[in-house]
């Protein structure tokens, strides 16, 4: 029955009516964002100008970038030849070139981005592999949708080609993400350890981000609402109260610190949760919904907890039991202090937009900048393996606000 319901949901995507018009572009970036950034660069304002110089020089942001795909089937995990790196590199190039088009009006970047989008749209039919295929669908799905969302207004991208890309996203990425959130790779049983909470939060979060982004890209209110409801109420680890299950009060400041479910696993995965939460909340914000503020700004509480610990300070920890990994009795020092491009977006919102106390998040942002040449890095420059492509980043250029 789940399979039938899923495909019924899928079949209706093209005609699904929004209850309110979506903002376009309206995933991580809006036209107002691009105008703000252009103004900063034109004025030579810092740190935007130096961040732009770095971004503009990225190897994969050049119009000479050689497309690595496309492939009919992308494999992540399993026994087949692993070719998912070709996909995430091409996505990174499409995204960075799309941004350069918006900031320069140079159509050579637009044409290069569209060339990548069209190549995959007319070739890719399946994301496959072992369980890691679900990570590929979620991570690369939300990132690919972001690239296309920026390009949707380009006059050089024919409507039929844009439609072909949207159809590919719905037929290839969306069903895998929905299958995971519905069935959790067969773990939705009722007897421990076969349980919906088997998978760590980032598995859920990337697929929530993917469905949310595809919903906006395709003007599908049902998809978008599904992702939003999962953030609030989903049964897996990716719903907000499962991702951040415990709230502690910091001595001295009285601020809330939100213990993250993956903090007892390692800091690399735990900070990835905040890259994904930031993307989900920013997209919702651009569509008029404040997930940043939900549950007394629970994402901020979690960000402050993660930032404080990764800056080298002690944080309180409540032991807990996981379905697959048993007792977690202490916070993990694995990958502590990891430099991940997460913090600019979060600090810009909580400090710059809301004026809330996000001091640990801000300090972690500055720590990252001290290790990345003064500007947050991102996809394609945050590490050569797949983890460097798990978030889009470049927040100093794209999210920094005045006085922030």
TrEMBL record:
GO terms for cellular component: periplasmic space. Keywords: Lyase, Signal. Residues 82-309 form the Alginate lyase domain. GO terms for molecular function: lyase activity. Residues 1-20 form the signal peptide. Transmembrane segments: none annotated. The keyword Signal applies. It comes from the Eukaryota. Gene3D superfamilies: Chondroitin AC/alginate lyase (1.50.10.100). The keyword Coiled coil does not apply. InterPro entries: Alginate_lyase_dom, Chondroitin_lyas. This is Alginate lyase domain-containing protein.
